[in-house]
Amino acid sequence: MPRLTPLLLLLLLTARVFAVGDWTLLKYEGRDYVPLANVGTFYQLGNLQQSGSSLVLRTANRSLRGQVGSPELYINNLKFILSYPVAEVGGQPAISRMDLTKLLEPVLRPSRIQSSVSVETILLDPGHGGHDSGALSLFGCEKNYALDVALRARDLLRAAGFRVYMTRSSDRFVPLEERAAMASRLPNALFISIHFNASGNDATGVETFTLAPRGVPSMANDGPALSDFVPCAGNVRDAENIALACAAHATLVCNSAMFDRGIKRARFVVLRESATPGVLIEGGFLSNANDARRIATAAYRQQMAISILQAVQNYRNAVGPRLPVASVVPRNNSGPTVITTTTPSQ
Ligand SMILES: [Zn+2]
Hints:
The protein is an alpha+beta fold.
């Protein structure tokens, strides 16, 4: 039966309202949304505070910040790009049910991810190689930087007890499909693809991509498109994918203090064709003078390798069976703290 409060009754011209368990569902632009106030109650994040279009849910150690009309959502100060902007549905700030189930739930409660397995193996994927140099700066090219970061991360991960494979360990071209196939063959593994960005403008900072859930637009293309509905092998790992992206992006942003461009969704071949949880990290812009200078230093690339190691460890702790329910990434005073503390609320 619909749960009709006086406030919600006002909304019925623009929204249909249903109560499903603990959630109030709102219909908007053909999609299901849930009120952010409902999110605050369910995840014990307190009462929704609204000032103009700005929205905050906050407790002593966790926060969610967003804005009506914006797809940017900050969880403990780490930027996520939602599949759909925060909307005001009949006077209530709300997020899409897709973002609730495919982003908030696995990020806020990673220990509840049913399909997760204990991580033993890491497949590192340095982007490009051989005739494909990738992006260029005055100091060097993407394929070499990506390989260098991967080799450094390999050594750190092996020293920490992980089995590590690489899609390439030298300057050679490997087709994208082959990289994804290697990932799919490895049990109990994570796939981490390493790239650097380029753009025609002054774009700067780091960003992390993971596979778009079925039916949502890819942020790497104009959309939505019919292809957004084609099932991808990687979608069986939706929950692990976003939890891994969260862990990877948090350490990358914290350690580098680079501008946080957010966690985004795409259907890159290496993400969509692999049934292994995976992410693609972009460690800065070779087209930006400041970013390019940093990327050219061994110290920055070593820091990226350390971030990859810490991300893997934090992810494993967050989802692993019989492991602590809290996972906190390293922080500095200005940086974000993520990922999450698991607080069963039901
Ligand atoms: Zn690249």
